[in-house]
């Protein structure tokens, strides 16, 4: 995660990317690129599981790095 973090800090992916990555991990989320309450809840659920120190439901660089690492072999 630490290796991937700087790249995501420099360029945060689109919301559609986050939705796609979450879907690949089995989370039920619309892949429409829209910021909805449902998407926020799914992001928060992912963060709560993989980064319980902060689970505000906001897509950020650390969340992106976690998703990228978890999905790299899928």
What's the structural blueprint in terms of helices and strands?
Layout: H1 5-10, H2 15-24, H3 37-50, H4 61-71
Number of strands: 0
User: What is the average per-residue confidence, as pLDDT, rounded to a whole number?
Assistant: 97
Largest sheet report: none
Structural class: mainly alpha
CATH topology: Muramoyl-pentapeptide Carboxypeptidase, domain 1
Order of helices and strands: HHHH
- Compute the gyration radius: what is it? 11 Å
Tell me the distance between the termini.
16 Å
- What global shape is seen? globular
* Number of structural units classed as domains: 1
Compute the number of helices. Answer: 4
Residue share in β-strands: under 5%
Classified in CATH, the superfamily is PGBD-like superfamily/PGBD
Explain how this protein is built.
With 74 residues, this protein is mainly alpha-helical. It has a single domain (5-71), classed as Muramoyl-pentapeptide Carboxypeptidase, domain 1 (Orthogonal Bundle), CATH 1.10.101. Helix content is 55%, strand content 0%. Helix 2 (15-24) packs parallel to helix 4 (61-71). The protein is globular. It starts with a helix and ends with a helix.
Give me a quick take on this structure:
The chain has 74 residues and is mostly helical. It has helices at residues 5-10, 15-24, 37-50, 61-71.
What brief labels describe this structure?
single chain, 74 residues, mainly alpha, Muramoyl-pentapeptide Carboxypeptidase, domain 1, 4 helices, globular
